[in-house]
Amino acid sequence: MNVFRLSGDVSHLLAILILLMKIWKTRSCAGISGKSQILFALVYTTRYLDLFTSFISPYNTAMKVFFIASSYATIYLIYLKFKATYDRNHDTFRMEFLVLPVLVLAFVVNHDFTPLEILWTFSIYLESVAILPQLFMVSKTGQAETITSHYLFALGMYRALYIVNWVYRYYFEGFYDLIAIIAGVVQTVLYCDFFYLYVTKVLKGKQLTLPA
Amino acid sequence: WSKRNMHDEL
């Protein structure tokens, strides 16, 4: 464990807490893409199957349980509890356009052709594009609530910090995992446009609006 | 598991 990975995990945890707070406090999931949340639940479910087979540390297990539980709780809030506030008309990204290519890629490019490893690879690839429905929805509505932009910033920073962690582990532990690194870079690049808007607008107290 | 596949990260 290093400070970059720890701060990445904290940023990830923060993002999830911000999202849950936003939905719970405002009792609304307006502006939130339910499809991205479904994809995240799929990411955690397929990645953390080793929850029962390999124990790394209490921290690792606790975080995995939290990520899985919170992703399903968010889906419950969006599609059941506050479904009247779910903006279905703007959450129109076709998930199958993400899941199918990623599934094929996981079978073609992986470290080990075993079920657990292919599911892990599928999860890594899927996570890199899972935010697209949410970013697509923000571009479609042309704006995002400030709290939602904080959620996206924290979520984007988590994998950006993981990239620094991978550089650190390469130089100090001789460890690297190209699948995770390439997917992580793609994932972070997808946030760049949003990061620019977040820094130039939200941090100056303005509303996050996209040029329609 | 080879070192690379430790998957010790979240």
From TrEMBL, chain A:
Localization terms from the record: Endoplasmic reticulum membrane
Regions crossing the membrane: 62-80, 92-113, 119-139, 151-172, 178-199
Keyword Zinc: no
Alphabetical list of InterPro entries matching this protein: ER_ret_rcpt
Membrane topology of this protein: Multi-pass membrane protein
This protein's UniProt keywords: Endoplasmic reticulum, ER-Golgi transport, Membrane, Protein transport, Receptor, Transmembrane, Transmembrane helix, Transport
Family from the record: Belongs to the ERD2 family.
Name of the protein described by the UniProt record: ER lumen protein-retaining receptor
The organism of origin for this protein: Priapulus caudatus
